[in-house]
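Much of our argument rests on the idea that a fold can be written as discrete symbols. Part of our work consisted of pairing the sequence of a single chain with a tokenised description of its backbone. We regard such an encoding as a compact summary of how the chain folds. The amino acid sequence and the backbone structure tokens for this protein are reproduced below.
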Amino acid sequence: MLASEKRSLYRFLLIYLSSTIILFTISSYLFYNYTKNNIIEQQKENLRLNGENIISKLRALQQSNSQKLPYPLTKNIDSAIYDLDKKYIFGTKQISLNKKPNNSFIKEVLRVKPYYLGASYLVVQKTLNLKAINILKKRVIIFLIFATLIFSILGYFLGRLFIAPMKESIDKINRFIQDATHELNTPISTILTNIELIENYDDCKNLKDDLNRIQIASKTLSRIYEDLAYLNLNHKYYKNIEALNISQILRDRINYFKSHIEAKKLKLKVNIEDNITIDMDKNDAIRLIDNIISNAIKYNSLNQVLKITLNSKNFIVEDGGVGISQKDLANIKNRFHRANKSEGGFGIGLDIVNEIIKSYNFELIINSKENIGTKVEVKWQK
């Protein structure tokens, strides 16, 4: 699966699962609270019935002639009786009439008719039975986990269906690129080889300008071929990481683009420190350098400066060309995005550069102003 397909799938799953989980969480929370309140109300109702039972026993005591009146006790329930002025008379322990119970207890206040010693209120209290509530909580959590798992699987397959049309289009493009690169390889190699042979003939010295233009066009085609081949491999080719002399490679690539630079009459300013060594795959290094320099030449203006700098910390290419607007800068690294439609190209150069940058944990910085120029910086060391 390509990076663009993965991004689309992940975005779909994020939106789908977030909305689903939020909906189920709210529903589960409401169900949990509703059921929990019913459980508590049921326990309160049982406590009230026990309170009524205690009141009936107290009335029986009032009618008894016994001198020793035992206070009625109920297992696991505390009770206390108060007079009309809410003063404590007697009970298993003193319980506040006004204070609300916490989450550990339930309490009921029952009004009784005055009887022996003038009691008017009975307060009953017991520990809240959390067993049923804990079982409910576990079931709700298990439901949420299973629902999330099931809808994640469902969302994944829905997401694959969602990106299927895009995947089909990308597959068609990739097949086209594969066929195009295969067809371009042989004629490009033939043209470049024959140009080198022709340049050595004395009879062709007067054709230098014509041969130069052919060479520029051929090298442009060759670079496009290399980029398309790189995309076709989807960056999964074997990389031979070794210590490269980037200084020498950069000088070679500048010489490769010499005919392009001369054709646009650019003033080349080069500041390359010697023997700068970077651990990279050579093809990646060439692809990185070529795309940055090629863009700087393509979008530079006639007779402007092309400045190339290399040191142990960074590689910088600056031009005095058309520049990039601020709104395009945010998307300039995306594949097929072109800020300037007046020049040729497929919009793949900076995407390739960005992929290489990320694979080596480098940093890519692009600063640009319209009609002033662009500065592209690759930091080897962050």
Notes: The chain is about 55% helix and 20% strand.
